[in-house]
Design goal:
Elements (H helix, E strand, L loop, with lengths): L2 H29 L3 H13 L3 E12 L2 E12 L3 E8 L1 E7 L3 E6 L4 E6 L19 H4 E8 L5 E7 L6 E8 L5 E8 L4 E11 L17 E4 L5
Parallel strand pairs: 6-12
Antiparallel strand pairs: 1-2, 1-11, 2-3, 3-4, 4-5, 5-6, 7-8, 8-9, 9-10, 10-11
């Protein structure tokens, strides 16, 4: 083959490769939702639910501590949430709509704090307990691709800026949250992973009523639980 046809063939191959690359980039961009669109998908998914049951794992790293806990999470609209820990056994965190309760079986005290004053790391999930509007609850919202065809949504939760520098939700393209990671202002990291999610599970409202055991003192607190 003479040099001229060979050069022409190479030029055609390069041009074809460039077209394929541009098409692939365009498809990838089209498949990746904007932060606003992805947040709206999360909103639509959770606004369509009245309850949710899921297994969770909670990992904390910071201040020389590396801790892992797990259990069952229950959500019921409006404004009710219950974290039953199986590890460590007996640990409980409940939002009854008015108060947040924190108690571990065998303790002499149960802590209580009004929901409006709550600054607990589990409280961002309250976004899912009413009319979810992530775009309004998280400032400087950004998105990026994640493993397994998922995406991340990262922002700063309003009202918690003094404690949390950013929160990242790992969600499916349909808007289902599989992971929530919070980085505190002291660089401590707490990560919640959710699995075996059961949308609209039958959960009695009484599940979210907490009565301290006999002899247990109720301590009202204005500090984070």
């Amino acid at each position: 083959m003479s040099p001229a046809p060979l050069k022409a063939r190479r030029a055609l191959l390069l041009a074809a490769s460039a077209v394929v690359a541009c098409a692939a980039a365009a498809l990838a961009q089209a498949a990746s939702p904007s932060a606003k669109e992805l947040a709206q998908r999360v909103d639509r998914h959770y606004n369509s639910l009245h309850s949710l049951k899921a297994e969770f794992t909670e990992n904390y790293q910071g201040l020389g501590v590396d801790r892992s806990e797990s259990g069952t999470l229950l959500l019921l609209k409006p404004g009710r949430m219950r974290w039953d820990y199986s590890s460590p056994p007996g640990k409980l965190f409940v939002l009854d709509g008015k108060y947040a309760w924190s108690y571990t079986r065998g303790d002499a005290q149960a802590e209580r704090i009004p929901v409006k004053d709550l600054n607990d790391l589990r409280s961002p999930l309250q976004y899912l307990l009413g009319h979810a509007q992530l775009g309004r609850e998280l400032n400087a919202l950004q998105t990026a691709p994640a493993a397994g065809g998922q995406f991340t949504l990262t922002g700063v939760p309003k009202g918690m800026e003094s404690r949390i520098s950013r929160i990242t939700l790992t969600v499916t393209a349909e808007g289902i949250i599989h992971e929530m990671t919070m980085v505190e202002t002291d660089d401590a990291v707490t990560r919640f992973t959710f699995r075996d999610q059961q949308p609209n599970a039958r959960i009695p409202a009484a599940t979210f009523h907490f009565t301290p055991p006999p002899g247990v003192e109720v301590q009202d607190s204005m500090a984070p639980i």
